[in-house]
Fold this sequence. Notes:
The protein is α/β, with parallel strands linked by helices.
Amino acid sequence: MANSNVQAQGQLQKEGKEQGGSVSSRTASALFPTYGRFPISLVKGEGSWAWDDQGNRYLDFYSGIAVNNLGHAPEKVKNRIKEQLDQIWHVSNLFEIPQQEQAAQLLASLGCGDAVFFGNSGAEANEAAIKLARRYHQKIKGEQRYEIITFKQSFHGRTLATLTATGQDKVKEGFLPLPEGFVTVEMHDIEALKAAIGPKTAAIMLEMVRAEGGIHLVDPAFLQEIETLRKEHGILLIVDEVQTGMGRTGKWFAHQHYGIEPDIFTLAKGIGSGIPAGAMLAKEYLREAFSAGSHASTFGGNPIASTAIIATIEAMQEDHLPERAAEMGDYLINRLQEKLGGHPFVREVRGKGLIVGIECDGPVADLVTEGQKNRLLFITAGPNVIRLLPNLYVTQDEIDQAVDILSQIIARHEQTKEE
């Protein structure tokens, strides 16, 4: 569908040029065609449900790609933002921002991060993490280290640095030359990792769950090997929690399942309940590496974004949402295994908390379309994996509805293949 949308727009533009005129705004978008959009316009949302401009209601099991962790338009966040809108919206980071300090204090209280830098997205958070790792080694330690080791099938963002860090070639096409300083190795190949480490290595960067790469969890034994190597070589550990943070896996941050404390970790997506926000957290000893003027973001952590972060965290604490995600995640995975276990098209159901992948024996893009026709929204995690990301308030009844629809869609798909 993504390719067909892009091709259709390209053909429209070509026809306009051949007729010797510009393409009418009534027949073509003024936007760059960077997104292969579904032909659905969602105009209203409440909890686990969204409505399109035709009045159709959908059960939302992708949550804006793990952004709407509290569901659509959560009251506790909405009310706080409304209050802030009547006060002040933006002042820039040249002034004290009390809401930003409160948001940082709350985030720091949830885990091992001591110092916080706010941006507007996951890519910005990861960019800040890369810059902090380099600057710490070069300005504080006096060592010319700058290389970041990452892993295949990872995803870290779309800026030049973060797409270079990403372990997928498809996001790099047409953007050469890429910046130097990144080495990508196979996940769980300890010998390859050891060989990649050298005198220029500044950090190892990884996801606890490679979400865009198929919902693959890191092996705890491999993570312990990384722990040994980083201490032995003085390497920083950066954990990308952009999609897995904020309670989604059943703990505030996915690395907490493994009993480790990264030097740096990053957040975005669910941090602001849909208000654009990102954050990079680091250990206290790294604070001095980001001295005044070393890094900045015009909009990062402004009063509106910080208020959304505060309200999101407080709602999650009040309603024990990380614990709820663990409980509902177990229920979802068990129900999927029960209903899909006999389907030959389904290879495996895996995940952690409410980030779940269903690996299939073939492409699943058509199943996404069928889901939409049956009023269930979900997305892929690679060509053969269905990705489910329901909000953290999801109910058992909503899970049952989603699993029933998925089971029916897969059964029809298998029958079609046989015919």
